[in-house]
């Protein structure tokens, strides 16, 4: 396959960026999207150019590091992570636009790499449970109803990649935050911090400069793990409940 | 708790949802009242007069009407202020656009902000036209709402403004009702289809119900 790539190049956080055009040839349909970018970078290094910086780690679709907006879609045309997107999703001769996540809470570090530490700070604000240290407790000591376990697991699938923020026209982190809150709030292990978790995490989300939710549904469409849109409603319910119970 | 609501983006959305639902409830009642025009001037004018004597003798003349007005003004102000502040936050959160643009979300979703502005301007015109009579065409007669309505819908601009605003209302309600339900925590996977259906029905009934009146005046069904 021969492709034309238009890639966002930006030297650092303060420099202005622009789209640069590159031609790549000899791309196999079986390559992953990141392998295709590796091919481009090898060519760029050989001619003495600066390779395109992009985030990647496990390349198995479970770590959430890869983060590219491909032809206007976070993680590209398939519902998966960029690393699990393959070149068979494209045609020979295609022009592909590659851009970084766009949100003021995710500033560009270089080229296609953005700083997603705002997510870490949301997690630090309440995305944990209090557990005594020592030997692991007896697994059957805390029964969890099957529907609750399923609900928790559905939300635990979130890998924190930030595609929801990238896809949202408001740069909102509601889907990410709701996944993390719902995952823990439904379980007995998460019960001691149930109210403070939702208040603190939503508060942190707001202070990081993420936008609000206007229910466009773009986040849930982009999510490679299929976190559903009603998760946001479930989080709102938790937030309203906590606001009534906790007086600060 | 008020502070928590106003300071949080989720709380401000809650205020928008509740104020929006109050206005929506009013609109349903308002539309049903308006449809009395199809039963002739006697019934319509009598209904309009009853709005002023409603609640008597417990309430004084026009008190009930003023209570409704105060609640509505509060709802409009809270709704618009929250919308303005949330929109500012949203635009700031996504300062740079993608180079590769794609059509996003439904038409109703994308037009919420402009639709809201159109509706706000419409409300101002609507009150000046049929409540105070300031910009009314053909001599506003206080106490004769039937004739006033026919005067308004006998002008091309009266019909145009009204019909455009009611179409904007339908779109606004379609996304707004469902969104309000999500914001208030009523949304879940099993209820989603029911909520969307209610939103669509409300939007359609309100739009058709309100637009039927200028159409009836234009076609001579009501004269």
Task: Describe the overall structure.
The complex is a heterodimer of chains A (248) and B (223). Chain A has 248 residues and is α+β, with helices and mostly antiparallel strands. Chain A folds into two domains: 3-110, Beta-grasp domain (Ubiquitin-like (UB roll)), CATH 3.10.20.30; 117-245, Orthogonal Bundle (Fumarate Reductase Iron-sulfur Protein, Chain B, domain 2), CATH 1.10.1060. Chain A has helices at residues 33-46, 117-124, 146-156, 163-167, 174-185, 194-207, 218-222, 230-245, and strands spanning 3-9, 18-24, 69-70, 73-74, 95-99, 108-110, 113-114. The longest helix of chain A has 16 residues, at 230-245. Chain B is mainly alpha-helical and 223 residues long. Chain B has a single domain (2-93, 107-218), classed as Fumarate reductase/succinate dehydrogenase, transmembrane subunit (3 helical TM bundles of succinate and fumarate reductases), CATH 1.20.1300. Chain B has helices at 2-7, 9-34, 41-53, 63-93, 107-110, 112-130, 145-152, 156-183, 192-218. In chain B, α2 crosses α4 (63-93) and α8 packs antiparallel against α9. At the A-B interface, α6 and α8 of A face α1, α2, α4 and α8 of B.
Q: Distance between termini of chain B?
A: 53 Å
The CATH architecture assignment of chain B turns out to be Up-down Bundle
How would you name the CATH homologous superfamily of the largest domain in chain A? Alpha-helical ferredoxin
Class inferred from helices and paired strands of chain B:
mainly alpha
Task: State the helicity of chain B in percent bands.
Answer: over 70%
The CATH topology of chain B is given as 3 helical TM bundles of succinate and fumarate reductases
Biggest sheet of chain B, open or closed, and with what strands and sense? Answer: none
């Amino acid at each position: 396959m021969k492709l034309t790539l238009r890639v966002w190049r930006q030297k650092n956080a303060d420099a202005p960026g622009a789209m640069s055009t590159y031609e790549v040839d000899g791309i196999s349909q079986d390559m992953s999207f990141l392998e295709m970018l590796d091919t481009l970078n090898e060519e760029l290094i050989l001619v003495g150019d600066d390779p395109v910086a992009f985030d990647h780690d496990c390349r198995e679709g479970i770590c959430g590091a890869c983060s590219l907006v491909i032809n206007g879609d976070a993680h590209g045309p398939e519902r998966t992570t960029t690393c699990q997107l393959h070149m068979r999703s494209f045609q020979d001769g295609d022009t592909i636009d590659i851009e970084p996540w766009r949100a003021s809470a995710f500033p560009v570090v270089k080229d296609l790499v953005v700083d997603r530490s705002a997510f870490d700070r949301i997690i630090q604000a309440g995305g944990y449970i209090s557990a005594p240290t020592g030997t692991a407790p007896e697994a059957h000591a805390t029964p969890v109803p099957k529907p609750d376990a399923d609900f928790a697991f559905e939300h635990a699938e979130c890998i924190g990649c930030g595609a929801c923020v990238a896809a949202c026209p408001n740069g909102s982190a509601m889907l990410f935050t709701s996944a993390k809150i719902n995952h823990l709030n439904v379980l007995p292990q998460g019960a001691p911090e149930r109210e403070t978790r939702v208040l603190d995490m939503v508060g942190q989300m707001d202070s990081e400069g993420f936008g609000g939710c206007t229910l466009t549904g773009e986040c849930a469409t982009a999510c490679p793990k299929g976190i559903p849109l009603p998760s946001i409603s479930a989080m709102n319910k938790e937030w309203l409940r906590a606001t009534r119970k906790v007086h600060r | 708790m008020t502070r928590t609501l106003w300071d949080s983006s989720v709380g401000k959305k809650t205020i928008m949802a509740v104020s929006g639902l109050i206005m929506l409830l009013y609109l349903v009642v308002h539309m049903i009242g308006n449809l009395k025009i199809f039963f002739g001037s006697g019934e319509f004018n009598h209904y309009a007069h009853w709005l002023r004597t409603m609640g008597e003798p417990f309430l004084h003349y026009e008190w009930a009407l003023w209570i409704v007005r105060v609640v509505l003004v509060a709802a409009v102000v809270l709704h618009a202020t929250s919308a303005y502040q949330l929109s500012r936050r949203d635009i700031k959160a996504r300062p740079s656009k993608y180079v590769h643009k794609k059509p996003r979300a439904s038409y109703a979703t994308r037009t919420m902000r402009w639709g809201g502005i159109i509706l706000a301007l419409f409300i101002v015109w609507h009150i000046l036209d049929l409540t105070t009579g300031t910009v009314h065409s053909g001599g506003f007669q206080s106490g004769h709402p039937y004739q006033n309505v026919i005067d308004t819908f006998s002008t091309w601009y009266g019909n145009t403004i009204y019909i455009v605003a009611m179409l904007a209302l339908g779109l606004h309600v379609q996304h707004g009702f469902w969104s309000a339900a999500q914001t208030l925590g009523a949304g879940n996977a099993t209820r989603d289809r029911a909520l969307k259906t209610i939103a669509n029905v409300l939007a359609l009934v309100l739009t058709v119900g309100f637009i039927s009146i200028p159409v009836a005046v234009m076609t001579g069904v009501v004269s």
